[in-house]
C-alpha cells in the first residue's frame, strides 16, 4: 500500500475555470490558515483504501492511522510505502506487527501514486469555493473521499511499474 497525508483547509488558490467569451469569472479567494489533514493509504492493484481525517500531521496521528489500518486488514501483512516525513520515522511511532514501513527516496513524490488521489480530491471537491467554517471543509472532504470508488483508485494509482512488481 502507498500512504501519505494532505492538508485541506479554508485557504484556497484560484483555479482555472470555464466561462463564456468576453466574461471575466469572479473567483472567490480566502486566506484563513485553518486545516485538517487527510491520512490515506491505497492499494493500486485492488483499489482498497483507508482514509482518516486528523487534526495534525504528527506521530500521534500517524499512530492512530497505523492502528486503524492494522485493524482494517487484520489478516494481511501490509508493506506500507511512505515518504520521508519526520512523523514517519519518529521514535514515537508505534508500528503494528502486521505492518512494515519502507520509505521512498527524498524529493520523489512522483513515486507515491497516492499524490494523484489528493489531486483528484482537490479537483472534485475543492475548486474555486470558499468555506465558512473548518467543519464545512471536513464535511466536503469526507463526501469527496466517499465518492472515490475502488475502480477510480485503481485507475489513478495502478501505474505499470507497480503492477509489474506484483505480477
**Could you give the count of β-strands?**
5
Would you list the SSEs in sequence order as H and E? EEEHEEHHHH
Major sheet attributes:
3 strands, antiparallel
Q: Give the end-to-end Cα distance, rounded to a whole number of Å.
A: 15 Å
- Based on secondary structure, the structural category is alpha+beta
The amount of beta strand, in percent, is 15-25%
Uncertain spans:
none
| CATH fold group | Nucleotidyltransferase, domain 5
CATH architecture label: 2-Layer Sandwich
Number of helices: 5
- Tell me the name of the CATH class: Alpha Beta
CATH superfamily: Ribonuclease H-like superfamily/Ribonuclease H
Task: Summarize the amount of helix as a percent range.
Answer: 25-40%
Give the number of domains: 1
| Integer-rounded radius of gyration | 17 Å
Strand order of the largest sheet: 1-2-3
Mean pLDDT: 89
What does this structure look like?
With 167 residues, this protein is of the alpha+beta class. The chain has a single domain, classed as Ribonuclease H-like superfamily/Ribonuclease H (Nucleotidyltransferase, domain 5, 2-Layer Sandwich), CATH 3.30.420.10. The chain is built from five helices and five strands. The strands form two sheets. The protein has a three-stranded antiparallel β-sheet with strand order 1-2-3, sandwiched between helices. The chain has a two-stranded parallel sheet with strand order 4-5. Strand 2 and strand 3 form a beta hairpin. The chain is globular. The relative contact order is 0.21.
